[in-house]
Amino acid sequence: MSETPKTDPECNGGIRMTRERVSADNKRIILNNRTVDVNQLVPIKYKWAWHFYLDACANTWMPTEVSMQRDIEQWKSPKAFTEDERHVIKRNLGFFSTAETLVGNNIVLSIYKLVDNPECRQYLLRQAFEEAVHVHTFQYIVESLSLDETEIFNMYRENQAIYEKDEFSMSCTDGILDTNVDLATREGLQKFLDNLVAFYVVTEGIFFYSGFVTLLSFGRQNRMPGTCEQIQYILRDESIHMNFGIQLINTIIDENPYCWTPEFQEYLIGRIKKAVELECAYAQECLPRGVLGLNTAMLREYVQYIADRRLEKLRLPIAYKSSNPFPWMSEVIDLKKEKNFFETRVTEYQTGGALEW
Ligand SMILES: [Fe+2]
Ligand SMILES: [Fe+2]
Fold it and tell me: The whole model's pTM is what?
């Protein structure tokens, strides 16, 4: 299998207009520039990317639409939570408050530059907005509960388990930024796929999940209802992000099969196994004695179970064969079963305010 011809490096990631009319057949996920005009959405080739964009737009929400009143009352009540419960809630807020920013930065600084197909870029712009909404969500929860903002937002450098997860993700953004990666080479393309797996599969598909299970477990007991409603919105968004990302990865591999070597597949399996260990260490740190009927053994089983599901979607062999100790999570993710999910939703957006001259 021959490698893709090199593009003009001056044009790599550029937006130069081409002379030819665009044919959908000529479009690719990466390395379009100079061959296909990257400024034209239509004709659409990758209908799945367009549909992910439409689905995402149908799910618009803002954190400030969700009342935090009951959460505030519960958090102020000295008897409403044990110290271990307060610890696990704060740890998860600390992790998410920065992790969402890391994902947004990676989209804008790495992925958007290198994925130059217009329909994928349309989704990436939408995803970047959603990551900003997620960052806003954690700022809003922390502010509403009058938590120590310095403690929460510095946790990613001051707590070892969170630091190691974030370092795993951030090193992949650095890897792209530092090297001026050339996607026309096998090495460059594998480096980019490593970045996409680190964010779409590991960060959004594994690292978020013990936090989701733990915070939603409070909601199942009717505690922290505003926080849990927002976590449900985020979980729905993240599920779409991950599915878009895996489709993106698999399509890049199909279009460039020379990059999908047995050694590279082994490497990625090793990276996912490393991520599972980091997530289990994080769960141990969050739940040293267990809360709400959750313990670290159950979370390990769950993290291994979801890692196998991610490996399957990447068309790689599963590694753990663990079962799902939280079948209710599947129902939360499959929102068609979540009957009253939007019942409390405010639909009046303040767009009119922007029209005053
Ligand atoms: Fe997010
Ligand atoms: Fe995301």
Answer: 0.91
